[in-house]
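[[Encoded backbone]]
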Amino acid sequence: MKFFSFWRSLASFRVRIALNLKGLSPEVIDVDLMKGKQREDAYRKVNPQMLLPALVVDDGTVLFQSMAIMEYLDDVHPHPNLIPSEPLARARVRALSGIVASDSHPLIVPRVREYLEHDLKVDEAGRTKWIHNFLGAGTKALETNLASSKETGRYCQNDAITMADICLVSHAVGCNFFKYDLAPYPTVRRIVEACMQNEAFAKAHPLKQPGAPASV
């Protein structure tokens, strides 16, 4: 397998966690988002959408979109399971994951920030307000759901790590990158802290990847 990734990509972070949990070590190919490498022909041929991550499996098939990649990994490497088999639990894990991967994260990614800056001429203060608005909406939704559900345990869905925890951790790291305060969200912080005690999460952290700075 080949894994196209970049240290700062939160979507790549999600897939790195899943790969670590499954004990998989693909060849990692760095695509520097800050230098626009995702827009060069070499990567366009891998993923015409020019987004990270992408995973090329052994038969040459290219998988893209972090959620789809994680579900594929769970199908072909089912231990440990990241998506429960029970229908209601499965739906809840996907819904919690979607708050991050479908509703919050897509609104703060580099192409959106670049459009705000270069096309709409939004200044830095305005861009920060935009980012905090959507990070905040996602965090509040996560906290409310997690704090009020009897299904929440040590992790998002009872006491086993699932895809929802992977997405939650990537969201929290994004909040840290953009200095959005998580202090008002005790359930989110508790679960993130529990996850980060797991080596699969800790090793996948963006700041522990090749080329990452000491801090953001």
